[in-house]
Model the fold of this input.
Amino acid sequence: MKARAFAVLAAFAIASSFAAAGLDFGSALKDAAGKAGVKGEDVEAVAGAAKAVAKSAEDITPEQEFYIGRAVAAKLLSTRKPYVNKAANEYLNLIGLALANFSARPETYGGYRFLIIDSDEINAFAAPGGLVLVTRGLLRCASSEDAVAAIVAHEIAHVTGSHGLKAIKKDRLTKAVVGVGVAAAQVLGSEELSEQTSIFKDTIGDITGTLVNSGYSRDLEFEADAAAIETLIAAGYDPRALVEMLSAMKSRIKAGGMDFAKTHPDPKKRIEAVEKILKKKKLPATASEAPAARQARFKAALGSI
Amino acid sequence: MRRITLICIALAALSAFGAASAAAAEAKAMSVTVKETQVRAKPSYTGKILGTGVYADRVQILESKNGWSRISMASRKLEGWINESALTSKKIVLSSGSGTVSQEASSGDVALAGKGFNEEIESENRKDSTYDYAAVDELQKITVAQEAVAAFLKAGGLSGGEE
Done:
């Protein structure tokens, strides 16, 4: 008996050294328990004790992210109408997919999609997994394809950085990832299904509330601008278009408005941060003129947006 | 002299063994973590499509370069390049309902497909009229082939027409 107690203790000690090394606690515990001579049900009991380990946004699988993203987009689209213009939307998708290929995460579970919202508001939303909505009002601030690319690259950065998932309240995460009820149950009972759906709705509320009302932290916005610069350069766009876009937005947004102004840091602060990064980049002294073909297709698709 | 030769042979054999075991250690297994991904002839979206991998497919990593991995997928008799963003080191298993699988899943090495927020939850959520899933289904229908993206990049004087 004494020997067994010692073995269990030893297992914990070995496992915590694993945990300290950044390794997973649960499996480490189970392995260590086995190594230390803990057998059968004891191993299960020891492993079970580690089950309650809290989940984080990183534990959300791409598949779960896909369903979360679809629901976020569905919620946003319940009060916002798509802009019905095939050419304009196709053009936006080409820019978006071209940029995604040069981003930190070219592929997501269900892929990237981009949609223009029929609204004068100046705003954009990136649902987890890559469903990106951009308003007509925001696109009107752009005077070139590079400027459109700048805001799309910023939205893609919110996707690649999983910023939406980070808005989910911690106490919901474990149930979101592992599920409610008996973890091993293949089919949920009606009570569990209703509980899981209710947690799902609350989770979507965390994200849409952040996208529409409170906004991401300034740090995440600056992080998205920095990532956008890298993506723009890699794709061959002029990253200075981000400054141009932010300036145009600054002159158009109304202070205290319900749109971008409410959920994003002052464009002036963002411009300062962006220019700081651009200074360190080897860019041509003056912004090069975009090829005529690029400007022509921008005019054709979005010229009268 | 003969002894030196013997030592040389022994050393050569040892280093060959070392290289072989290093290569074996490098051929790690990963899983496809997106619904569908293309296996290409070269590490670029302009590479010819050789086949398709789907969620949870297991692959062996042969080499990695510029964000792409050359893989072999025994289950589909495929060898080619997959973008690394479509791969995870976790093993993805369809939940079998067995205790061991769920315990492994809670350890983080294994991701259970279809657990937590899944298709079943979405169909339940569709009953809620404050979500416009029809609009999302329309949006999801948009498909743009990588060939079109490559042509778009090239026509616009952008990067990556040829990588």
